[in-house]
Design a protein that fits this description.
Two copies of one chain form a homodimer. Chain A is mainly alpha-helical and about 725 residues long. Chain A has helices at about 5-25, 35, 40-45, 65-70, 75-115, 150-180, 205-215, 230-250, 270-295, 310-320, 350-370, 370-380, 380-390, 395, 400-405, 410-430, 435-460, 465-475, 480-510, 515-520, 540-555, 565-580, 600-620, 625-630, 635-650, 650-655, 660-670, 675-685, 705-715, and strands at about 190-195, 220-230, 260, 265-270, 300-305, 330. The first copy, chain A, has a four-stranded antiparallel β-sheet with strand order 2-5-1-6, sandwiched between helices. In chain A, strands 3-4 form a two-stranded antiparallel ribbon. In chain A, helix 6 packs parallel to helix 25, helix 8 packs antiparallel against helix 9 and helix 16 (about 410-430) runs antiparallel to helix 17 (about 435-460).
């Protein structure tokens, strides 16, 4: 890839960024778009009065950038919870790393690489016609003493990243504990989920659980809530909700639309009456179904068991309860509104097998995804493309077109394919047996991350048949050498990828294209009620892997192609502003994991460090500087030992809270007069919302009666 | 190797077995050998009266064989504890497996192999001149339909072994629970060991621990015992003990020996006086040291903390205590007399690093041990030996000599080298930071086992340079094929190994050569007191790997060379009788782990199954029966899934006891009037024996005073 192609790409994408920023600055001021751009504020403060049109609304303003940049961490914690703070720390962590690496890379490595002459001397006269490879390590000649510069850089950056990782892990652990100590009593702190409950014949699950916990935890046991098979009921509620929406929509329409010609003879039918009748039917079904589900025969062998103290719940969670460890399996309860009700598979073996099936499915998906990746790979290789599709030859000779094709298209197509992956991974995680949305998100996040790493790193790097790639991993000793050959060759592709995919997708994120389109399309049919309006929560499973991927890319490539660093810095600055903003205005947390996903970040950073070191080993071997390649060997060992230490030192605090903290919190509550009230609520906190009495009033006149608001609360 | 060589080996070893059995049958009846052959009975019933000589004592009898065979499991449990029962179950497990495999192997596989003609037709006329290879799978021709016989055998034996493993795991788990429920209250059930105790400046470890547990476990905390740095004191006690022995020995001698000429002028010195003075000096040192050690400055940051109930101790063990998981690290306390006092390294990092160092040392030892193994390997290859040592040529042409050299010597030398390994591994485990003898033994057992597997299996199979071997493991996809080539070629070596090493060493175990020699050598200097006499405990770290190794060998080779099976059956029968006997008469348990080492057995059996399946895959590929090799693939996957299930289903019960069981036991004790007395004892149960007041009386007349017996008790 030539410098000119990169410049084209930078031009296009900077233009797009500015366009998105300008459009956003204008569109966000239009009241009709409030629901898309500031749903959170809308939710908190209610709909502002419909202001009259004025010119200011059309002039782009930058106040929001300043506000987003200045938002303090304390404010973020207060408004969006610890998860948001930890999420933002991924970005600030990356910014710190790439500022440090950037200084080394641009002021030391880049000049050193340019001064090399392995490929050719740099042509300062016609800068834009130089190949990007001139700026990479490939340009240093074999055995050159200048190779010690990247060697020292590798050591320095490893040390800096490890130091920062330690500091962050420590900081976030402390924040987690502080957060726990400062929050009010929460149902999930007092509750565990018990699964695989053995039931003796003749007794119900409820009796069995009650007997067990009264027997073995008499002093701390408070109450229990058995899970029921409610999937049928849930689908009925969904139907009812849909019908109810249609009805309210119809009532706000003109009279004409309320009638429709149906049947052979085209009788006029009052649609409101029709839908009302249908709704009544569904409601009747719901009533019948609810009374059936509440029976003991529909009990699932799982129950939420609440305790009088946090410590009591923790003890029951940590101890193996029964002599058969596959029975009375305990896990920490999620927040009540974090519970994922549809999937409560009952037996231990069933859950275990479904896990295995999902793992296999993930591996298959990851491998099969190679096909689109390979096609994309072909695009960067113009000659090959011309061989495949000869008719393109004439078009591809136009410089601009070829620059767009090599510099922009591949990463865009890849990005589009990658958009499909997160929903698939969420689906796979959801059938894996997790019982909370947050666990599903965390697991999907992990899956997407490793999927991306495998496909973007290894698959595009070792392009070739699937079998060839698998065989590489069966030959682990050759990996560094092969990486050393293949990776630098791909550097320019990844530089372009950061600019195109990174910049554009992040700033288009700000623009919220899909919600905006939906909102625009819906508008004509919209009734005045704001019942459709929902505050979205940040899609961690999608955004964390993306941000991590760029961090990973930067660490791996910083000494190979230091040119990537300024582009990454711009990317993370963009991400910093946009996420702090898409938190102030758009996203609201639905549940709080208190930064439980940080270990994923930590692990992937360690992975990228080791990958970088492996590549460094390969490169130094290829460049015939064997002393350097030998001296790199201790680095991955030390890095892995550091990781192992962090795992022992910090990870346990991300699984459960220590006794010290639990007891301290319990003691504080002992004299709290509000606890009686809290316990009362706790008893019903984990009731399946499908089992709560809901009634969609069949009388359309009373649509805004309190009953409905009750319904709304339950349905959200 | 020819059949005749095998027959020679069988002859020699059967002869040796009979000899050992006969010698044992006679020697055990001599009262002078009681301490070697029946120390346990001696300990229990006291020394029998010196009977007059009679002829019966010289006639070998076989009553003991019958007694050993008939000993019921209940009796064994009563007399030797659960560990002995589980140990015996390894042997009965192997017997069952090889009976099953033996029937298939001898009646199906052996005839099938003989009927093959890949190598050459079997020569029935001169049976002893056939190569052993005729009886192996190598004799089946490529693509032969007869290869389906070993294929089916592999499936059958895998299923049988898995079934048996499941059954045994379940049985032993149940036994463990029963054992726990039936034992009296034990100090270790109520105690945990706390390490890495943070101490604020100005306070002692004792104060720190007391404050912490009174704060967070006020209702269950009972007492604590801080560990002190007592290594200097321990060595002083050792010296004193030695001196005391010399003194008692001297007093039983004649008057002449009590004096010695010392100094330039050859003054006569009363040695008794001399030693007495020395002993007094040491005792004075001990007193000073003991008072110093008892100070808070000599406290180690570790303490045994006892609780009022088993459940209380378990809760403190299972919960992470502090926000820093590397502080207040808890582990289950060992039995008081199982505690390994010398090594209480203090900080978390120090222990963690020493663990890493030991692992590295183990790997180095395992690899360097290859050198003697390779030399032994040379012995089976006579031609090579003749090239190395040409002067042996004439001797080696004698048939009998060559048969001894190829059939007997290699395994004997190997066996001798292997004898050094267990003590080294025990040493390595002891500096790894374990604080109980049983943990050290268990860890050493693991190390010896993997050491043996690596060296005997892989190193002798893939004979070649170290680098070549390592490279094989970096090429995992080729392992089955390489195993398929190399393993059958080694089959005859292993058949010989079972006969020579297995038979002889097991029956010589019965003979207790080393203790017997020691006893015979000491006799002339022995005084009448029986203070030297100790009941040995079974060396699990040495005997479990040996037995497991033969089990492993049998499973791996059964379908390759079914001829190994009858010899293995004989071996396990021998082991069965001898260990049941070396339990009745010799070994007494020093501590009880309640069968905690069974998971090692389980894992190694799973390993051997997977190894066997990998070899089967390799063989079927080589023999060009690709359908069979494809159909073998699901087998290791299923086996590993089975293992994973067992790990979830049974393993947790081998780490700690479940809440259910603990609470049941605690409730039973609630009304036990003996508990007050037990709690009193519990407070001092974990006092370092070095810190107990010991006095070696300086007055030689009172050597048999109660003080001494007290000393003895402490020293043992």
């Amino acid at each position: 890839m030539l410098v000119s192609a990169l410049l084209t790409s930078v031009g296009i994408n900077s233009g797009l960024c500015v366009l998105f920023f300008t459009l956003y600055s204008i569109l966000r001021k239009q009241p009709s778009n409030y629901e898309v751009y500031i749903p959170r504020l809308l939710d908190a403060e209610g709909k502002p009065k419909r202001s009259t049109f004025n010119l200011v609304r059309l002039i782009p303003s930058t106040g929001w950038v300043k506000r987003a940049w200045k938002l303090s961490e304390e404010d973020l914690l207060l408004t969006s919870g610890l998860d948001a703070v930890v999420f933002m720390r991924i970005i600030t962590f990356s910014l710190k790393v790439f500022l440090f690496a950037g200084v080394i890379g641009i002021f030391v490595l880049l000049p050193v690489n340019c001064s090399g002459d392995q490929l050719y001397d740099i042509d300062f006269a016609d800068l834009s016609n130089n190949s990007l490879d001139v700026f990479t390590i490939s340009n240093l000649s074999n055995g050159s003493k200048r190779l010690w510069a990247p060697f020292i850089a590798v050591y320095l950056v490893t040390a800096f990243v490890c130091f920062l990782l330690y500091y962050e892990y420590k900081f976030i652990t402390a924040k987690r504990i502080d957060f726990f100590l400062s929050t009010k009593p929460q149902p999930q702190q007092f509750t565990i989920l018990v699964r695989s409950i053995p039931v003796s014949s003749g007794s119900s699950v409820r009796e069995s659980v009650e007997k067990f916990f009264l027997e073995y935890h008499p002093s701390t046991y408070l109450s229990l809530m058995v899970v029921h098979r409610s999937s049928k009921l849930q689908s009925l509620i969904k139907d009812a909700k849909k019908m109810y929406k249609r009805l309210t929509h119809l009532q706000s329409e003109s009279n004409q639309q309320k009638y429709r010609h149906v049947g052979l003879f085209g009788q006029k039918v009052d649609l409101v009456d029709h839908y009302e009748k249908k709704l009544e039917d569904i409601e009747e079904n719901m009533r019948v179904e609810r009374s059936e589900v509440s029976l003991a025969t529909e009990e699932v062998r799982a129950a939420f068991v609440s305790f009088k103290s946090r410590y009591g719940a923790a003890v029951a969670f940590h101890m193996q309860q029964s002599t058969n460890p596959t029975e009375w399996v305990t896990e920490l309860a999620p927040e009540p509104n974090d519970v994922y009700w549809p999937f409560f598979s009952s037996t231990f073996i069933k859950r275990w097998l479904s896990k295995i099936v999902v793992v296999v499915a993930c591996i298959l998906l990851t491998i099969l995804f190679l096909i689109p990746v390979l096609i994309v790979q072909g695009l960067t290789n113009l000659n090959q493309l011309e061989v495949w599709l000869p008719f393109l030859k004439s078009i591809l000779t136009i410089t601009f077109v070829s620059q767009v094709v090599t510099g922009y298209l591949p990463s865009l197509i890849l990005q589009m394919f990658l958009k499909i992956v997160p929903p698939i991974m969420v689906f796979l995680s959801s059938i894996q047996g997790y019982i909370s949305h947050s666990q599903i998100q965390k697991s999907a996040c992990d899956k997407v991350l490793w999927f991306t790493i495998w496909n973007i790193f290894f698959a595009t790097v070792f392009s070739g048949s699937i079998l060839y790639q698998v065989s590489i991993f069966l030959d682990p000793k050759d990996i560094p050498a092969k990486l050393g050959v293949a990776v630098p060759a791909q550097a320019s592709f990844f530089i372009a990828y950061v600019v195109t995919s990174g910049w554009t997708s992040t700033s288009s994120e700000l623009f919220r294209i899909i919600p905006l389109t939906c909102s625009l399309m819906k508008k004509p049919f919209r009734c005045c009620s704001d019942e459709e309006f929902q505050v979205p929560s940040i899609p961690y499973h999608q955004d964390i892997p993306r941000i991590l991927f760029f961090g990973l890319l930067g660490i791996t490539y910083f000494f190979l192609a230091p040119l990537i660093l300024p582009f990454l810095l711009v990317y993370f600055c963009l991400a910093y502003i946009i996420y702090r903003n898409q938190f102030i205005n758009v996203y609201a947390p639905k549940y709080e994991t208190a930064g439980k996903f940080w270990p994923i970040v930590h692990n992937s950073m360690i992975f990228s460090l080791v990958l970088m070191q492996a590549i460094a080993f390969g490169i130094f071997t290829l460049k015939k500087l064997s002393i350097a390649s030998t001296l790199v060997v201790p680095l991955p060992i030390l890095t892995l030992l550091f990781n192992e230490y962090c795992r022992k030192r910090f990870l346990p605090n991300f699984t459960a809270y220590p006794a010290e903290v639990l007891i301290k919190r319990d003691r504080e509550d002992q004299h709290d007069p509000n606890m009686a009230e809290f316990y009362e609520k706790l008893v019903t906190a984990y009731k399946d919302p499908a089992l709560l009495p809901i009634q969609f009033s069949s009388n359309t006149d009373s649509l805004s009666s309190p009953l409905i608001s009750d319904t709304q609360e339950v349905l959200h």
